[in-house]
Amino acid sequence: MVEEFKDIIAGLEQRISLYKIRLNDFQKKRDKIEDEIRTVKRYLELAETLYRVEVEKAKAATSRSLSDEGDDTEKGKRESSDVILLEKTRFAGLSVPQGTFLLLKEAGKPLHAKEIHHKLVEGGVRIRSKTPVTSIAISLSRDKRFGKSGPNTFRLVEVSDEKVETVVKGATLD
C-alpha cells in the first residue's frame, strides 16, 4: 500500500515537472511573439506616418498646381519636416553593421563606436543591450568590412561600388 502511494507521488511529481517545462516553453514563445508584435506595430506606425506625409505632399502639390501660387516659407517648412522624418528613419530595419556601413560611407572618415551608436539610434536602429557601445564595437570587430583606426574607432575597409549597392538594398554581404 505504501509502495503504491510512492508510485503515485512519483508520477505526479513527473507530471508537475513536465507541466512546468511546457509552461516555461509557452512563456518564451509568448515573449517572442509579443516582441514581434511590438516590432510590427513600430513598422506600421512608421508606414502610416510616411503615408500621411506622402498624402500631404500630394495634396500640397495639387493645390499649388491649381493656384499656381507658392508660399516659400510654407514650402520650406514642409521640406524641413520631410528631412527630419527621413533622418529619424533612414537606418530603420537595418542591422548595426548594415547601418554602420552606410554611416561610415557617408561620413568618409572613421567614427568612434559612441558616435556610431548615437547616429544609428537617431536614424531608427533599435539596439537592445545594457552596453550598446560595447555591443557595437564587438559586432563591428567581427565584420570584415570594418577595420580599426584607433580604440573603438572604426573605418571602412576598401569595398567595391557593387557591394555598396547590395548593402543599400538591405541585403547582407558575404
Quick structural summary:
This protein is mainly alpha-helical and 174 residues long. The protein has helices at 2-67, 72-89, 96-107, 113-122, 132-141, 161-168, and strands at 111-112, 146-150, 153-156.
Silhouette: flat
Report the mean per-residue pLDDT as an integer. 81
Helicity, as a percent range = over 70%
Report the strand count.
3
User: Mind telling me the C-alpha Rg?
Assistant: 26 Å
Task: Please describe the biggest sheet, giving its number of strands, its sense, and whether it closes into a barrel.
Answer: 3 strands, antiparallel
Q: What is the strand arrangement across the widest sheet?
A: 1-3-2
Q: What is the H/E string?
A: HHHEHHEEH
Poorly predicted runs are 164-174
Q: Structural class, from secondary structure content?
A: mainly alpha
**Share in β-strands:** 5-15%
Distance between the termini: 67 Å
User: How many helices in DSSP terms?
Assistant: 6
List keywords for this structure.
single chain, 174 residues, mainly alpha, Arc Repressor Mutant, subunit A, 2 domains, three-stranded antiparallel β-sheet, 6 helices, 3 strands, 6% strand, flat, disordered C terminus
Topology:
Blueprint: H1 2-67, H2 72-89, H3 96-107, E1 111-112, H4 113-122, H5 132-141, E2 146-150, E3 153-156, H6 161-168
Antiparallel strand pairs: 1-3, 2-3
Give an account of the 3D structure:
The chain is mainly alpha-helical and 174 residues long. The protein has two domains: 87 residues; 77 residues, Arc Repressor Mutant, subunit A, CATH 1.10.10. The protein is built from six helices and three strands. It has a three-stranded antiparallel β-sheet. The C terminus is likely disordered.
